[in-house]
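Below is a filled-in request sheet from our internal design queue. Each sheet records the structural input a requester submitted and the sequence that came back. We keep these sheets so that new team members can see what a complete request looks like end to end.

REQUESTER: design group, bay 2
PRIORITY: normal
MODE: inverse folding
CHAIN LENGTH: 657
BACKBONE (tokenized):
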């Protein structure tokens, strides 16, 4: 039954992706410009910028551009040489009438250059072209003061400009801040100035702040506020209080605005060193991190949620005309099975969200396990109003999606990868890394090992973990096995007969783990022993390791998820069993928990970023819990970890409830 439903889904998905917009690649030749390429394909320059935002810089010879071939709504007439265009990003509640007044242009003229507006309403976040008459070019010299029309917010204001001579060490951020304009406005004033050089004269505003723009030390840097960012998120990002940010930037007293240039503490030192754990804030620093919250009773935003799921189905490898081909692919391809299980959990979460009054417009795309395919999907579909993207599964494709969607600040949630990822402002790593799991166990041991006799068993490959453990547990004693075997005689002399013995085993060698747990199991007849590890790797799952031994030693380990109790009836589990006649896999549950959390967060705040400012505790569902913390270099990671323990009946229990 499950296979039949999945095969039907795959047919639907293959048909859906086949109707995508057509496009082609153009290889840039020497002497070509965005203008000449747009003319060659009879499309607008804005259409090229939409699919290739990097093209706004200089075009590199032999680089490839995505060219939309049937994007009729992107084509713009360029009949009049006396017309120039302003790109306007539509804001909440803006109307064509309002824009026509702000820019002093007829509504029909706006529609003429944005033909989709004849049939569609304005969408918040979309970019449209506003036609404006070109200014005369009689005198090319800069006068001491000129008038410049710059749209700001919903109001059109006339801004005066003046000249500024660039000094050594000055940056665009510093100059923009000094003259009260955004970096984008500064670049629009000086379109031919790509790199600032001392002595160059540029155009700036006239509203001058009384402070230098030269960076004389490494304590502070300048930062441009991006869409959807909040004061809380920035305070977490730069590890500084909100009051301190306001003190550094008095303009914040009037509120945070997109494009503002802020003075912030410099984070470009030790945090950028690979492997430096300071990139992560200590979970214990957040006094509310241990508070569980239920978002289902905090719902306030009932707008339809735009959700996109990117998964590696790899449908191009399957014969679309053959059901048996789909069945064989499901049986033979583990990644496809994981993707389908995960997506079935996503669908069930969307259905569950309906019971809370949350409607969702769900779309899914096949990434084909390929970075270029991810780029193609984003380039050929409109992601500007998407509330969240879940996926892809693999690290490189997830980073590619986050990189391409930073321009819209669309949240990208990595569902399964536990590898450390590059820092993007919009990237959420929902699965804790091994480093976070280790630190969670460190915290548990540090808080609970008082009064215990602690023994650390670590092989040579785990010397670093041993050193970290001895630092947080200075009274611990250490055993360093020289081979893949450890007998009871080497452990017995370090055990206490009057205190509880906590043994921490750090190894990925099956022989060492097997012999050590067997020896400890025998010694536990006369001593009170509890076994721990900071990393329950695959060696602990090997058939040679006796689970009965682990149970008698009350084995403790950090885990991303907890195992649900199949004997306890739950609506989700019962519904899945009724639909597919089987118990849901961990990937089904993961898809359900993650998606429901995202939808509840979106429905309890203006957007995903805002939800973390409003609710600082953790959320928990069937097997997974989520507490997202900002990374200092950009993005968010989930630091909600379970410390699991196994009892003598081999039942799993949560030790850090």
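RETURNED SEQUENCE:
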């Amino acid at each position: 039954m499950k296979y039949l439903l999945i095969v039907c889904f795959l047919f639907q998905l293959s048909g859906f992706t086949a109707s995508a917009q057509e496009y082609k690649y153009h290889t840039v030749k020497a002497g070509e410009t965005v203008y000449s390429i747009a003319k060659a394909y009879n499309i607008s320059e804005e259409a090229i910028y939409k699919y290739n935002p990097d093209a706004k810089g200089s075009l590199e010879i032999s680089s490839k551009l995505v060219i939309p071939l049937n994007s009729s709504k992107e084509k713009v007439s360029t009949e009049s040489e006396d017309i120039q265009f302003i790109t306007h990003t539509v804001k909440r509640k803006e109307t064509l009438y309002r824009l026509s007044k702000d820019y002093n242009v007829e509504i029909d003229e706006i529609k003429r250059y944005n033909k989709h507006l004849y049939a569609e309403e304005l969408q918040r976040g979309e970019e449209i072209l506003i036609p404006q008459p070109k200014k005369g070019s009689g005198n090319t010299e800069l006068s001491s003061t000129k008038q410049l029309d710059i749209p700001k917010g919903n109001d059109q204001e006339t801004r005066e400009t003046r000249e500024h001579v660039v000094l050594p060490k000055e940056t665009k951020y510093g100059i923009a801040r000094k003259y009260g304009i955004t970096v984008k406005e500064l670049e629009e004033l000086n379109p031919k100035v790509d790199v600032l050089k001392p002595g160059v004269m540029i155009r700036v505003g006239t509203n001058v702040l009384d402070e230098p723009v030269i960076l004389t030390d490494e304590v502070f840097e300048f930062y441009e506020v991006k869409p959807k960012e909040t004061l809380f998120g920035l305070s977490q990002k730069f590890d500084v209080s909100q009051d301190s940010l306001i003190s550094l930037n008095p303009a914040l007293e009037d509120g945070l605005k997109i494009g503002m240039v802020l003075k912030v503490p410099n984070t470009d030192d030790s945090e950028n060193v690979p492997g430096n754990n300071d990139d992560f804030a200590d979970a214990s620093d957040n006094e509310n991190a241990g508070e569980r919250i239920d978002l289902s009773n905090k719902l306030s935003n009932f707008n339809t949620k735009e959700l996109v799921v990117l998964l590696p189905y790899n449908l191009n490898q399957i014969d679309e005309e053959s059901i048996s081909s789909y069945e064989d692919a499901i049986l033979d391809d583990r990644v496809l099975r994981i993707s389908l299980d995960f997506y079935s959990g996503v669908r069930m979460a969307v259905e569950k969200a309906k019971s809370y009054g949350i409607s969702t417009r769900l779309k899914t795309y096949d990434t084909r396990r390929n970075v270029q395919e991810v780029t193609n999907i984003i380039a050929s579909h409109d992601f500007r109003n998407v509330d969240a993207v879940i996926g892809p599964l693999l690290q490189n494709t997830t980073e590619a999606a986050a990189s391409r969607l930073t321009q819209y600040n669309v949240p990208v949630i990595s569902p399964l990868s536990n590898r450390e990822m590059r820092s993007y402002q919009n990237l959420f790593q929902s699965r804790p890394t091994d480093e976070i799991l280790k630190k969670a166990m460190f915290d548990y041991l540090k808080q609970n090992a008082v009064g215990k006799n602690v023994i650390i068993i670590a092989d040579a490959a785990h010397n670093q973990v041993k050193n970290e453990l001895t630092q947080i547990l200075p009274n611990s004693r250490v055993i360093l096995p020289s081979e893949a075997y450890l007998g009871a005689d080497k452990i017995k002399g370090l055990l206490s007969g009057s205190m509880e013995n906590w043994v921490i085993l750090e190894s990925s060698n099956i022989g060492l783990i097997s012999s050590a747990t067997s020896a400890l199991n025998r010694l536990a007849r006369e001593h009170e022993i509890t076994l721990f590890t900071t990393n329950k790797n695959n060696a602990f799952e090997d058939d040679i390791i006796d689970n009965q031994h682990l149970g008698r030693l009350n084995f403790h380990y950090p885990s991303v998820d907890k195992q649900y109790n199949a004997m306890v009836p739950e609506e989700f589990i019962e519904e899945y069993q009724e639909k597919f006649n089987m118990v849901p896999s961990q990937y089904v549950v993961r898809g359900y928990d993650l998606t429901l959390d995202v939808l509840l967060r979106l429905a309890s705040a203006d957007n995903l970023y805002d939800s973390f400012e409003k609710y600082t505790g953790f959320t928990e569902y069937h097997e997974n819990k989520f507490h997202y913390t900002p990374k200092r270099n950009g993005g968010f990671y989930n630091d909600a970890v379970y410390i699991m323990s196994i009892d003598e009946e081999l039942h799993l229990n949560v030790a850090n409830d």
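SHEET NOTES:
- The first helix runs from residue 2 to 18.
- Residues 238 and 524 are 49 Å apart (CA to CA).
FILED BY: M.R.
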